[in-house]
Amino acid sequence: xxxxxxxxxxxxxxxxxxxxxxxxxxxxxxxxxxxxxxxxxxxxxxxxxxxxxxxxxxxxxxxxxxxxxxxxxxxxxxxxxxxxxxxxxxxxxxxxxxxxxxxxxxxxxxxxxxxxxxxxxxxxxxxxxxxxxxxxxx
Length: 138
What we know:
A hairpin with a 2-residue loop joins strand 2 and strand 3. By secondary structure, this protein is of the alpha+beta class. The relative contact order is 0.17. A four-stranded antiparallel beta sheet has the order 3-2-1-4. It is globular. It has one domain (3-137). The chain contains five helices and four strands. 49% of the residues lie in helices and 20% in strands.
């Protein structure tokens, strides 16, 4: 099944969140190209809402929409772009999040950077390994 066919068979709610994810992936990528990371964080702030409980289904939909949108984007969106886009999607729903930046050394002893996004114990953008967290933004 090709991408267009898969898209056409999505339920309307999933299409809507897919469009949202695609829009925010592009917005995050363009923002990072034009502005410093510090300034981009002002565009993609976290929410200080303590008692908002998002359902696992809602969080999974956001994660899936980001993955689908990333596959159809014109360029590969790295973890930082995905994390910023996911952060904005969560922010719109008043869901608090934690964007983390970290590093690790690969098998060639080179430093690898990574960004991941969590809300509670749910990872929207996966950490994927034992990265040393250097900084986080809530």
